[in-house]
Amino acid sequence: MGKKEMKKETGLGLSYKKDENFGEWYSEVVVNSEMIEYYDISGCYILRPWTMTIWEIMHDFFDAEIKKMKVKTCYFPLFVSPGVLQKEKDHIEGFAPEVAWVTKSGESELDIPIAIRPTSETVMYPYYSKWIRGHRDLPLKLNQWCNVVRWEFSHPTPFIRSREFLWQEGHTAFATKTEADAEVLDILELYRQIYEDYLAVPVIKGKKSELEKFAGGLYTTSVEAFIPNTGRGIQGATSHCLGQNFAEMFEITFENEKGEKAMAWQNSWAYSTRTIGVMVMVHGDDKGLMLPPKVATVQVIVVPVPFKDADTQSILDACSDTVKKLTEAGFRVEADLRDNYSPGWKYSHWEMKGVPLRIEIGPKDLAKNQVRAVRRDNSTKVDLPMANLAEKVRDMLNDIQKSLFNAAKEKRDACIKVAKTWDEFEVEKDVKTRTKGEMGAAKTLCSPFDQLELPEGTLCFASGKLAKKWSYWGRSLVLLHISINPTSI
Ligand code: 87F
Question: Domain Aminoacyl-transfer RNA synthetases class-II family profile: where (predicted)?
Fold first, then answer.
């Protein structure tokens, strides 16, 4: 029997290995773990409950944090009128091919086609102009949780590059640049926490180069993650200082304390469901998904292991008691009491779904008043006495969370090469164009806020001029992975 047929029969197991065919492995994992269902429109995916519970956990964290910063929730319409979209034409120019339009209702053509938001600057800022009059109207800090549509033409990938995705977009306006600058970094720190503390994915915080920043803004900061299997860096989330460009365009002005007309300083910031794809790519293995406990829908799965002559009912009761006890202690825990699947099948099933900890209860465990705990990340097995189960489970889940992060960080750090010279490299723009082709263009990811020591007199690896700072460069060249280079730009 071929691997494919086997999979069909049991519904379990992956037919691709992560290190052999990463792309196919990824598609299979997101489907078999019941996160994603493919949809009949290319680039669109159904996000199943196993995905949405993760999204909700991240939402609850981030939403609570920004509310502490006095950011208010709003919701603006999905549709954009063409006039206002054009207003931003300088910045929209490069993005225009990705904008989707509604041109018909029923059989009749609309008089004026209507765009679907790819981002909401042009939707929101006309109203910022209306609502901001005096200095007392500032700061104005709004965030919305919504979907956006970008009609991508390159290879769609669940979570990573989809035509419709979910995100939060924050748009804020201040009287001073100082306040705007501070907020950019406060938000960036929350993005770092989402990746590192929740998804156990290490990121680098930094500033984008002039070439890679959002063209409509003053400067762009980002968190950059790394996917070991592709050797590529990936933008995790962005926090922009827009300066006064949009304020000028949309006339977002106010009367300051001195009674003078002044222009607002603006920021915008977003993270999307891409975060989930990065987490899957970083932690998953040949058994399937691997969920960090902080975001796992089910942190502990309890599986009864009945034995032929044993008292099945008391095993099932022990499982239910365990669920009750751990639930009361604050864990997300479920028992798989289905009688039409074997324990072995259930083990594989919950491993595929990435549940961090499995608790098995059989007749011997029952007799000894203990359970057997098996870690998803390293398969280690330990017997835990029932007496202080909740404490032990807490320790184990904390340890799994840390181990996932450390393993990912070690892998990433092993792929960072310090490159002080590269004769063939030209300055940034040339590097990007000259390396285009089958191996993928090399571009700067960011200049990290956390800088290595730059010895005096170090030259830029590309231009030969005096280097000003270190920058991360990312490309798909497997051997190079990402590099950090002294750059003059
Ligand atoms: C695609 C089509 C049309 C990105 C686009 O990063 C417009 C755009 O403006 C576009 N793709 N962008 C840049 C988005 C900038 C900014 N918007 C608010 C963010 C954070 C949230």
Answer: 77-292
pLDDT of residue 256: 96
Does ligand 1 have an atom closer than 6 angstroms to the CB of 119? yes
With residue 7 as reference, give the H or E element that holds it: helix 3-10
Ligand 1 atom with the shortest distance to the CA of 269: 20
Pair of tokens at residue 43? 């680039």
Amino acid, res. 423: D
Residue 73: how many other CB atoms lie within 10 Å: 12
Residue with the nearest Cα to atom 5 of ligand 1? 95
Distance CA 396, CA 403 (A): 10
CB neighbour list of residue 315: distance below 8 Å, 6 or more residues apart: 304, 305, 306, 361, 362, 363, 366
Which helix (H) or strand (E) covers residue 447, if one does?
strand 443-448
Q: At what angle do helices 49-68 and 274-283 cross, to 10 degrees?
A: 120
Other residues' Cβ atoms within 10 Å of the Cβ of residue 22: 17
- CB crowding 88-100: b at 16 or more within 10 Å, else e: beebbeeeeeebe
Averaged over successive runs of 10 residues, the pLDDT of the chain (489 residues) comes to 43 88 97 98 98 98 98 98 81 85 97 96 97 98 98 94 98 98 98 99 94 94 94 94 97 97 98 98 98 98 91 96 98 97 97 98 96 98 97 98 98 79 51 59 81 84 80 54 61
**Residue of 62, 214, 219, 221 with the most ligand 1 atoms within 8 Å of its CB, for mutation:** 214
Burial of 259 (0-12, 13-18, 19+ CB in 10 A): exposed
pTM attached to this predicted model: 0.91
